[in-house]
UniProtKB/TrEMBL annotation:
GO terms for molecular function: glucuronosyl-N-acetylgalactosaminyl-proteoglycan 4-beta-N-acetylgalactosaminyltransferase activity. Keywords: Golgi apparatus, Membrane, Signal-anchor, Transferase, Transmembrane, Transmembrane helix. The keyword GTP-binding does not apply. Belongs to the chondroitin N-acetylgalactosaminyltransferase family. It comes from Aphis glycines. This is Hexosyltransferase.
Amino acid sequence: MDLINKFSKQRGRVIDFKEIFYGYQRVNPLYGVDYMLDMLLMYKKYRGKKMTVPVRRHAYLQQQFTGFEVREVLDGSEVKLKTQQQDAEAYDDDDAAGNPSRDIADNGMVRVEGPPAKRRPDSQTKTVHFVLPLFNRLATFARFVDNYESVCLANDERVTLTVVPYGRATADGAAATVAQLAARYPDARLTVLPDAGGQFARAEALHAGAVHAAGSPPDDLLFFVDVDMLWTAATLDRVRLNTVRGHTVYFPIVYSEYDPVVVYGRASGSPNHFLVNQDTGYWRQYGFGIVSAYATDLAAAGGLDTSIRGWGNEDVDLFEKFVRSRSAVSVFRAADPDLVHVYHPVECDAGLPEPKARMCANTRFETYGNVDQFANIIYKNRDAVYEFAAGRLRNVSTAATQPPPHPLPVSKSVPRPVV
C-alpha cells in the first residue's frame, strides 16, 4: 500500500486497503518471491472531481532477495559515484480522473523486465587465474578442459589455468590432456604442476596453485574452482566485476544439479546443464569452495590453512577468515545461474572424523533430488514402501520382546542402574 500511495499528494487521491480475497506466492530462485493477490481497495479522489469507489484489483508483486547494489569500478578500483539530482516525476491528474483502475496499475504493480544485460567493453581486461586441484577424475577433467576451451580460449578471454595434481597417474593424465590443448592454443598460459605427493589436501593444492599463478599486481585475480564445475562467459564477467582489490572478495552461490536418474530417469547426465529450476537442482547456500580474490587480499586475511587434510572445512575456514578480517575487504555473495556444479555421486571416506562425516553425508543426501520428486517416487512405489516399513516394525517389535541371548551376570555388590 505504501507503493500504491507513494504519489498520492501529486495525484490528489488516496487508496485504502480493505481485504484480500485470495493470493498465491512462489519462490523464483533467480529473482525473489513472486506474489499474486486479489484485493479489494477503496479509491478516494479528493482533488478535482471527487469520488469514492470500491475497486477490485489483481496485484502482481515481486520481492527481491536483496536490494540493488550499484557500484562503478575502473581498472579494478572503486569509483565514487556522484550524487545526482533525480528529476521529479510529472503527473497529469486528468489521466486518472475517470479511471481509478489505471491509476492503481501505474504504481509499479506490474512487473517490467528490461533488455538482457550486455557485456561491458572493459569486462575482459582483467586476467583471471584459474586454480584447479585435481585427484583422479581424469574423465571429468577432460569435460572441464572442453568447457575451458569453448568459453575462455576460443573467445580470447584473458585467463590462465594452473592444475595442481595429486598422484603420479593424475599428473601424467592431466599433463597429456593439457598438452593437447596447448597444441591448439600455443599462446595459452596452461600449467600442470608436478605431483604434490601425499594425501590429497585441497587447501594445500590451492595455496600451491595460487603461489604459482599470481603475478605482480594488478594481474593476480585468483579464481579457485573444482573439476565438476561448468560456467559461461557471464560468470567470468561477474568474477571480474565483483572482485575488487582491497574492497571485495566474491563467493558465488553455485547451482548444483540433482541426480539425473531422479530428474530425467537416466544416468547419462543432464541434457542442459544450465537449466535452472526447482526440479533440476538447488543452490548451495552453504558451499564456499568457489571463490575469487586478489592474492594480496587473500594474504591479508590469513590465507589458506594448509594443515587441513582430507574432505571439507578448508572453504569454510577461508570464508570465516574473510568475514572476521579487520581489513577493508568485504565478502560478496550472490547466486550465479551460469556457474553449475555437475552431478556426481558423493562418496564419503569411512575414516572421516564425525563432524566431516556428517557434513559429507548431508551433501550426499541433498544432491539426490527435491521433496516433490521423492514424494512421487514413494507414491509410485507405495506397496514396496509399506512392505519395507512393516518389516522394520516387525523386526523392532521382535527385538523388544526377546531377552538378550547371553545376559551378563550382575554382581550383588553393584546395584542395577535405574532405567
